[in-house]
Specification:
heterodimer, A: 517 residues, alpha+beta, four-stranded mixed beta sheet, four-stranded antiparallel beta sheet, 21 helices, 8 strands, B: 357 residues, 55% helix
Chain lengths: 517, 357
């Protein structure tokens, strides 16, 4: 009788004992997370793992292929709304930690599928810096699309053909070779240029896109735009043939004078670098988790084969194999601790902590009908509201706090991705070329793993940020340096950006005061 | 030993280098994409120079290379394409074990491959059962086996090593392509099934030892060629890509990775392991000692190649991960060098067995 490998059956509390110590995950919240992970595991085991190789082959053969059926199915488990704040219908508390654990679970089944949901979360991320104005618009649309079985995915576009790493560090942004730019026009901006390697780029309904408004001052004028993929002048170019993570399509996006109305500027003009780096602080632990999941997927598969398959069983008697298995378990455990440290820092101490701010919570408690009335929406989109978000970030977290959070995130990302490469290589080495179907699965995981060392900043860049934030206790200039200067009083006035409603104004002002404490 | 002078060998290497540069490198991506027409054309090129039977004397239509000479040729071919280099190795290893009477009937551009079965106690080792005149069962991974005209199988009959020949088209033989091949796609992998398929016995332990020396030393040479190519691509990219307003080769992170690639390439070229298997080929070492050198060279060189090619992808960043740049292919090729003809941890096991003897 075959023995069953005791992997994948560990409860959340067994695998992550430290979660109970996260103040946002007390009692009911921890149970909600357990339920979510159970649903994710079932989704992964039933729908993803058995078809992972099929998705990979299909994507290689046809660049238009995309597993919408799987995205729809994942939506039923809430995987598209898990990245949303509670006020918009998402899970809310401990959001980064939750996303990380979901990413690990999905990646153990198929990293490409995890990245489809992860890249969607990345696309949503910048909206958190736009304040509450998106809770009842794009975010609500995502929740509704999930419920009605017609999923809406998002994408995040920063990389340009001549600027990869340049777009992921405040100093390099200033010196880099950026070709994209946004030109101010009446009522909004015109976007021009090409973005490349954009995950979900060809499928996304909405894309958060970063471009400077003044190409001569990219750091000071970098801005995030929410682009409707149905806009005139927008088109999808080349879809890449990648070594791995193939089911997650990476596309070139071409912007030919694409008009973006002023209300689709996320945050303020010039907040772009802060916004982008803030998103990376939250997403790099997720990449660490993806790496951890890839490693776990390889480890689980080879262990199951060693225990259950007559071809593998004799190898389990070899000490070299046992030592390798122990080392894999050790590496996975370490990588997991690092992403949990980083995600907890995000959730509790840095950016995620802003969502716990009493003022933000208060806004969330307002009936949706109130938040969505025209006057209120105008106030939430006002210059003061946009400024309040950055003011809160500056006062509660500051450059120092952001730099530390970035360092922890970058460390988790670099370690998790290195673990993925190491463990998939070890698993393949144990199984060898004559291990039948297992070989193809391990080879795929190894191909998938390599990307995690590259995307969201190469590991080299990530480690330089670790040095700055942890070794040297330094400060990267992550807060806006020129935001708001661009906008003239007349532009603000023409937009109706100045709040006229006294009650709303006082709420927004109270946000800044709370942040100051 | 053979009579080829150093200058003659230099000429062969120069011709091979030119062939790899002009015919293989430009077609490397198509070979990786399993384009059968491209493979046929490249194989014809290999055969026109006579490299598929390089080890054989000129009287047998070969080039008369020593093992050391063949390793030099394989390294140059692998700079162009690791898969075609592997196919050339497999052909040389197979033809070197064939007796004259069979060799005489082998066409000039025929593709014969050596098939080293996994060692006892490892996956795939029990799949094929070889009897006196027939074989039955399956071999799950035959590098270069798809499209081959003959298979020289190094396996076991009971406790004894045995080398047998199975001709393509033999009764009960089915050969199917493995569509999930990770690397060395110029040597298309097949899954082979035999049902009482006729075999011809070629020899025993002595031939098997010769085959193992050839395969391990040859894969080491191919890995070095693949690593050299990765160095060329990475260096070229680093000198032309700008980041933060400077060429990326001016950044310490990139300097460090390129230096390590260069360091591995140079140290391995000058290492005793590399020189060792060259010596083995010239008959300066006993069979077991030659095998030990070949195993050590294979493990050390292929690991270095895997690290170098992975670093090369990293230097190219997102571009490196894209198929069209041709560098991720090298990483996949290098991984197969680590795993073929056996995983390196098994090669090390064998090495210690030989050390104890």
């Amino acid at each position: 009788m075959k023995k069953k490998a005791p992997i994948s059956t560990r409860t959340l509390r067994e695998a992550f004992p430290r979660l109970a110590k996260n103040p946002q995950l007390h009692g009911g919240n921890l149970r909600k997370l357990e339920e979510l992970i159970d649903r994710t595991r079932v989704f992964g085991d039933r729908h993803v793992r058995p078809r992972a190789l099929e998705f990979d082959r299909r994507a290689w053969a046809d660049t238009d292929d995309f597993p919408w059926d799987l995205v729809r199915e994942g939506g039923k488990s809430g995987l598209l709304s898990v990245c949303l704040p509670a006020q918009a219908g998402g899970i809310g508390d401990a959001m980064c930690t939750t996303l990380c654990i979901v990413m690990e679970e999905l990646s153990a089944a198929c990293p490409a599928v995890a990245v489809i949901f992860g890249a969607h979360g990345l696309g949503v991320g910048p909206l958190a810096f736009g304040g509450p104005m998106y809770w009842d618009t794009v975010m609500r649309d995502i929740v509704e699309s999930e419920h009605n079985g017609d999923p809406l995915v998002m994408a995040f576009a920063i990389t340009e053909p001549g600027a990869g790493t340049d777009m992921e560090n405040p100093d390099l942004v200033e010196r880099g070779h950026l070709a994209c730019s946004a030109r101010p026009v009446s009522g909004g901006f015109r976007l021009n240029g090409t973005k490349c390697f954009i995950s979900n780029g060809a499928q996304a309904r909405w894309i958060t896109v970063y471009m400077p408004v003044d190409p001569a001052r990219p750091r000071a004028t970098m801005t995030c735009f929410l682009v409707d993929s149905r806009s005139e002048g927008f088109k999808v170019g080349h879809v890449e043939h990648k070594m791995g993570q193939r089911a997650s399509r990476a596309a070139e996006l071409i912007f030919d004078d694409v008009f973006v109305p002023r209300d689709k500027v996320v945050g303020r003009v010039g907040d772009g670098v802060t916004n982008m780096m803030g998103v990376l602080i939250g997403s790099r632990p997720c990449v660490g988790a993806i790496g951890t999941g890839i490693a776990r997927g390889a480890y689980e598969r080879v262990l199951e084969w060693l225990i259950n398959d007559p071809e593998g069983q004799p190898l389990l008697e070899r000490q070299q194999v046992r030592l390798a298995l122990a080392q894999m378990e050790e590496e996975i455990h370490l990588a997991r601790q690092m992403y949990l440290d980083a995600s907890t820092e995000f959730d509790v101490v840095s950016i995620g902590g802003l969502m716990q701010d009493p003022g933000v919570k208060l806004l969330g408690k307002l009936p949706r009908r109130m938040r969505t009335n025209a006057l209120m929406r105008r106030q939430l989109g006002s210059g003061l509201a946009r400024s309040a978000v950055m003011a809160l970030l500056g006062r509660k977290v500051g450059n120092k706090g952001l730099t530390r959070a970035l360092a922890l995130s970058s460390m988790a990302k670099a370690r998790g991705s290195d673990t993925a490469m190491k463990v998939t290589g070890m698993a393949l080495e144990i199984a060898g070329l004559s291990s039948g179907p297992l070989r193809a699965e391990l080879e795929k995981l190894m191909r998938d793993a390599k990307l995690t060392q590259i995307f969201e900043g190469t590991n080299q860049l990530n480690r330089l940020e670790v040095c700055e934030g942890l070794c040297l206790d330094g400060e990267l200039g992550l807060l806006p340096i020129g935001a708001g200067n661009w906008e003239t009083a007349s532009e603000s006035s023409a937009d109706g950006a100045s709040p006229s409603n006294g009650r709303v104004r006082s709420k927004l002002e109270s946000l800044s005061k709370v942040g100051a404490r | 030993m053979n009579g080829m002078s150093e200058s003659e060998l230099g000429d062969v290497i120069a011709v091979t280098r030119e062939f790899a540069t002009k015919e293989l490198s430009p077609n490397a991506l198509e070979l990786d994409d399993r384009n059968e027409d491209t493979l046929s054309a490249c194989w014809r090129g290999v055969c026109e120079v006579g490299l598929q039977r390089g080890l054989l004397p000129e009287s047998a239509g070969g080039v008369g290379l020593s093992l050391a000479g063949l390793l030099g040729v394989l390294e140059e071919l692998a700079v162009g394409d690791g898969g075609v280099a592997a196919l050339t190795l497999l052909s040389n290893a197979a033809l070197a074990l064939l007796p004259k009477e069979i060799l005489g009937s082998v066409g000039d551009d025929a593709r014969y491959v050596l098939v080293p079965l996994p060692e006892p106690g490892t996956p795939g080792s029990t799949g094929l059962s070889i009897a006196d005149k027939t074989a039955s069962g399956s071999i799950p991974f035959v590098l270069g086996g798809f499209g081959a005209d003959g298979f020289v199988i190094v396996g076991r009959k009971g406790d004894d090593e045995i080398v047998v020949l199975i001709e393509a088209g033999a009764k009960g033989l089915t050969v199917e392509r493995d569509d999930d091949q990770l690397g060395l796609n110029g040597a298309p992998v097949a899954v082979i099934e035999c049902k009482s398929t006729p075999v011809k016995k070629l020899g025993g332990a002595e031939l098997a030892l010769e085959a193992r020396i050839l395969m391990n030393a040859g894969i080491a040479a191919i890995a070095r060629g693949v690593a050299r190519r990765s160095r060329d691509i990475a260096l070229d990219y680093a000198e032309n890509r700008f980041q933060g307003g400077s060429m990326i080769i001016e950044y310490g992170a990139i300097i460090d990775m390129i230096a390590r690639i260069s360091e591995r390439n140079r140290v391995i070229a000058g290492s005793s392991a590399f020189r060792g298997y060259s010596l083995a080929g010239d008959g300066a070492l006993s069979g077991d000692e030659a095998l030990a050198q070949a195993l050590a060279a294979k493990a050390a060189t292929t690991e270095a190649a895997a690290e170098s090619t992975t670093d090369a992808v990293q230097i190219l960043g997102g571009m490196g991960y894209m198929h069209e740049m041709g560098v991720e292919k090298l990483m996949r090729d290098a991984r197969y060098c680590q795993l073929f003809p056996q995983s390196n941890w098994l090669a090390r096991d064998d090495l210690v067995t030989l050390e104890r003897v």
